[in-house]
């Protein structure tokens, strides 16, 4: 079986597995990787960029090496190769967990239970929930759905198309390292520099594809394009900017503005200023848009893999 078909069948099976099964309660491969990366950090940590580079190389490189070794072991069996790609895809994507958490918060807000929504918000993003009212929580959820559509699904599929199973695992490793050490705290400002920069690079193509597909799949393509062009570069993140701006335009809502992380208040520019304020019902609309974008990304990635394979033949 050709490699492009192995990828197409395997990633489709992996996305279906995520849709039907979600993430395991215990022993998730990403959690296992996180514990291993934490152990490496305990060995290597110094307030030094060089140590951080080594940490990134060991952890992300180790994930890529595991993927390459596993692919080599099964390369003579098409069925085993499809199964490996499917398991790897299921392990690295998180669309179902993302949708589940967003909808749980949405149901709490619909019931008027703001405290329950605040209690659940940290499962989805790092905002300070006590600083948010119901509308602020809804906006935070929509922004998190948009950004994580790229980080938890589309980016992985893009790198899978480029590098197969090693690409899938490598992208998730880089993204996880950024979440662990890539933030600008006093402990990680230098040590996490390499992980944060590598995540920006790895996330670049997936973020742009997510923005394009949100424009195609949303209810207001012109609004999505307008918001993306006008506001994406104003966002402090080079990858979250296009994604959140295109989602804002596609949904017809305003995102961005004042928010709080870890007691630190940030005043971010408003994305799609012509839109209306986010409402609780927009959480479900954002989840559905995320689903459409994810399946379109599968099709685009499979087609890209086929083109790359054809050029190599």
Structure, explained:
This protein is mainly alpha-helical. 73% of the residues lie in helices and 5% in strands. A two-stranded antiparallel sheet has the order 1-2. A hairpin with a 2-residue loop joins strand 1 and strand 2 (264-271). The radius of gyration is 19 Å and the shape is globular.
Q: What's the topology here?
A:
Layout: H1 3-21, H2 29-44, H3 49-74, H4 78-92, H5 95-110, H6 114-120, H7 134-181, H8 193-217, H9 221-231, H10 240-251, E1 255-261, E2 264-271, H11 281-312
Antiparallel strand pairs: 1-2
Quick recap:
By secondary structure, this protein is mainly alpha-helical. It contains eleven helices and two strands.
Summarize this structure as a short list of keywords or feature phrases.
single chain, about 325 residues, mainly alpha, two-stranded antiparallel sheet, 11 helices, 2 strands
């Amino acid at each position: 079986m050709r490699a492009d078909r192995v990828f197409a069948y395997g990633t489709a099976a992996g996305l279906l597995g995520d849709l039907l099964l979600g993430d395991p309660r215990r022993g998730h491969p990403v959690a296992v990787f996180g514990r291993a990366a934490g152990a490496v950090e305990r060995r290597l940590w110094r307030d030094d960029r060089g140590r951080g580079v080594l940490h990134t190389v060991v952890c992300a490189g180790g994930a890529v090496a595991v993927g390459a070794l596993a692919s080599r072991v099964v390369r003579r069996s098409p069925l085993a190769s499809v199964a490996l790609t499917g398991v790897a895809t299921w392990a690295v994507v998180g669309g179902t967990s993302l949708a589940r958490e967003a909808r749980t918060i949405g149901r709490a807000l619909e019931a008027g239970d703001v405290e329950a929504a605040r209690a659940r918000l940290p499962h989805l993003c790092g905002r300070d929930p006590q600083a948010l009212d119901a509308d602020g929580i809804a906006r935070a959820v929509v922004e998190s759905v948009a950004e994580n559509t790229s980080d938890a699904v589309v980016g992985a599929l893009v790198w899978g198309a480029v590098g197969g199973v090693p690409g899938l695992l490598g992208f998730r490793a880089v993204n996880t390292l950024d979440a662990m050490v890539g933030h600008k705290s006093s402990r990680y400002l230098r040590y996490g520099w390499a992980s944060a920069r590598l995540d920006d690079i790895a996330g670049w193509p997936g973020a742009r594809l997510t923005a394009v597909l949100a424009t195609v799949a949303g209810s207001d393509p012109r609004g999505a394009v307008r918001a993306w062009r006008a506001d994406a570069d104003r966002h402090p993140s080079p990858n979250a900017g296009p994604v959140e701006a295109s989602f804002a335009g596609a949904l017809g809502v305003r995102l961005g503005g004042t928010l709080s992380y870890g007691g630190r208040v940030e005043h971010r520019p408003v994305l799609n200023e012509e839109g209306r304020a986010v409402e609780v019902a927009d959480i479900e609309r954002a989840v559905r848009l995320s689903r459409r974008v994810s399946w379109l990304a599968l099709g685009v990635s499979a087609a890209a893999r086929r083109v790359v394979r054809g050029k190599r033949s």
